[in-house]
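Appendix B. One record, verbatim.
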Amino acid sequence: MDLGIRGRRAAVAAGTAGLGRACAAALVAEGAEVTICGSDAGRAEAAAAELGTDWLVADLRDPEAAAGFVRDVEARHGGLDLLVVNGPGPGPGTVADTALADYQAALDRSLLAVVGMCLAAVPGMRERGWGRVVAITSLGVRQPYPNLALSNTARAGATGFLRTLAREVAADGVTVNSVLPGLHDTDRVRSVYADPDARAAALAGVPAGRLGDPAECAALVAFLCSERAGFVTGTAVPVDGGAYQGLL
């Protein structure tokens, strides 16, 4: 299926590894002109060389730096059509073990950085009458994960922002969606579930019985970025091997 995005200008945040890198690869395969970012110049340059993309350095833990990444892509390429919002998640911890002071850093990286990237990208998309924003959040916004209190909290807020934004810009040809990854084979998942027993317990709640391949999540992201997905907006779609058990 031709997704109709050949030549479209794309920014993929945190595109050097994991789900972000898989999304960048999927968009490159569809002919998009992709720019990735990472916090380390060496890693970003190396990933970009392998993927065939442009690259920039940005510390996505800082909302202003996250917005700056988007502005820099627009300036370098004369605009932006596709934005994949992504970033490093907060560390693990229960509510009881997490201090109030820890929440601000989590909100900066997993809520306010999302807001900053969208505020930087969407005005130009609205002016041109076409745009796609797809945010990678977490299944934890629907079904909170144990021991991830900061992520569950911050990303739930991001989901509320994204759905509000989607309503405001739909009539301008701009769609805003999010994907909610479950357990995928990424460095973050391997870190959070480093203990084999903890990983086995987590996988027991996944009907597919395995970790997801990042490319499987990226395929949905690419579709939501496509011309064909123009009537899909305001959604939050689980990609989780059946782990989400709610009816709605």
